[in-house]
């Protein structure tokens, strides 16, 4: 038996594939862009009562629970050839660690900064894949933007607890940003069977993510089970953070090449800034806005390699 995944033509289209083809992929991306940070912004409000890793557990567990009856992940794993099964496990592990590190970064840093660092990885992967003067310039511009957002002079003069908190937050933000690159690569591979097949695979990957996060955040989340409103809030975070944006990503990825999807990512630091202002009252100053603009310019200017997209 071949371990190659079925070709897109081998998967019968259903309502999700038809819906993906009816609505422009840029519209799916726009919905994802809003919820990508709206859910985490609400999650920040739960950190003091549920705990950072407890909120991460609720996010992944509620998403896995939502997908289970719709995508039947046990059937997907059973029928998948070995290579596809390894792909699903890798995507699940990536989602689990990425989500946890994202929340650990948000606990210490503004959401706009975490977003900017998250998308520098897309510039870095372009630089690795296609070393051109244009990409070197894009990488330099984005790096300057992140340096402005981090406020390097203030970081160098910080002392004690403030320095430790900033450095730890930056570590988690960099880890999250590093994992965002394999999320895009693996997510595109998952979407190769079309939107419907991509969402089915996403459901299986989310089950794998749940198994990975179970020993990490369950005991923090357990403390919230006595308060129904906190449980509902945790479920809401999961729907807003992992169901809506990831499904919309699959609907967009099914029709957009990787280079085009990476180009649209330039919009996300801006959406994070707006949501940070509206939900968390994190008001950026002029230097922050300049840094965000430079990161967006860097991501938009880079040109990924055309092979494998």
General description of the model:
- The protein contains 14 helices and no strands.
- Helix 2 runs antiparallel to helix 11 and helix 3 (52-71) packs across helix 4.
- Mean pLDDT is 79; it is low at 1-13.
- The chain is mainly α and 309 residues long.
Helix content: over 70%
Main sheet attributes: strand count, strand direction, barrel closure: none
The first-to-last residue Cα distance is 27 Å
SS-derived structural category: mainly alpha
Strand residue content: under 5%
Number of strands: 0
Order of helices and strands: HHHHHHHHHHHHHH
Low-confidence stretches: 1-13
Shape: globular
Number of helical segments with 4 or more residues? 14
Radius of gyration: 19 Å
Short descriptors:
309 residues, disordered N terminus, globular, single chain, 14 helices, mainly alpha
Topology summary:
Blueprint: H1 15-22, H2 25-50, H3 52-71, H4 73-79, H5 82-106, H6 111-129, H7 133-150, H8 152-157, H9 160-190, H10 194-222, H11 228-253, H12 258-264, H13 268-280, H14 286-301
């Amino acid at each position: 038996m071949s371990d190659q995944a079925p070709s897109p033509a081998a998967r019968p289209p259903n309502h999700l594939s038809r819906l993906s083809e009816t609505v422009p992929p840029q519209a799916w991306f726009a919905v994802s862009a809003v919820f990508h940070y709206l859910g985490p912004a609400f999650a920040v409000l739960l950190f003091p009562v549920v705990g950072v890793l407890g909120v991460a557990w609720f996010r992944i567990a509620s998403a896995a629970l939502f997908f289970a009856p719709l995508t039947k992940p046990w059937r997907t794993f059973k029928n998948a050839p070995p290579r596809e099964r390894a792909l699903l496990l890798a995507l699940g592990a990536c989602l689990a660690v990425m989500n946890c590190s994202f929340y650990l970064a948000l606990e210490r840093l503004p959401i706009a900064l975490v977003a900017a660092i998250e998308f520098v990885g897309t510039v870095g992967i372009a630089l690795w894949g296609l070393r051109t003067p244009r990409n070197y310039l894009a990488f330099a511009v984005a790096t300057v933007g992140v340096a402005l957002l981090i406020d390097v002079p203030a970081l160098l003069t910080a002392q004690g607890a403030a320095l430790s908190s900033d450095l730890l937050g930056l570590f988690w933000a960099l880890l999250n940003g590093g994992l965002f690159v394999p999320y895009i690569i693996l997510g595109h591979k998952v979407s190769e069977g079309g939107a419907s097949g991509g969402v089915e695979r996403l459901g299986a990957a989310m089950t794998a993510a749940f198994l990975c996060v179970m020993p990490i955040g369950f005991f923090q989340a357990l403390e919230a089970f006595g308060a129904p409103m906190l449980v509902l809030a945790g479920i809401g975070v999961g729907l807003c953070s992992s169901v809506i944006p990831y499904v919309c990503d699959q609907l967009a990825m099914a029709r957009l090449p990787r280079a085009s999807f990476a180009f649209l990512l330039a919009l996300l630091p801006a959406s994070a800034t707006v949501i940070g202002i509206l939900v968390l009252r994190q008001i950026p100053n002029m230097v922050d806005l300049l840094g965000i603009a430079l990161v967006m310019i860097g991501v938009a200017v880079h040109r990924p390699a055309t092979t494998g997209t």
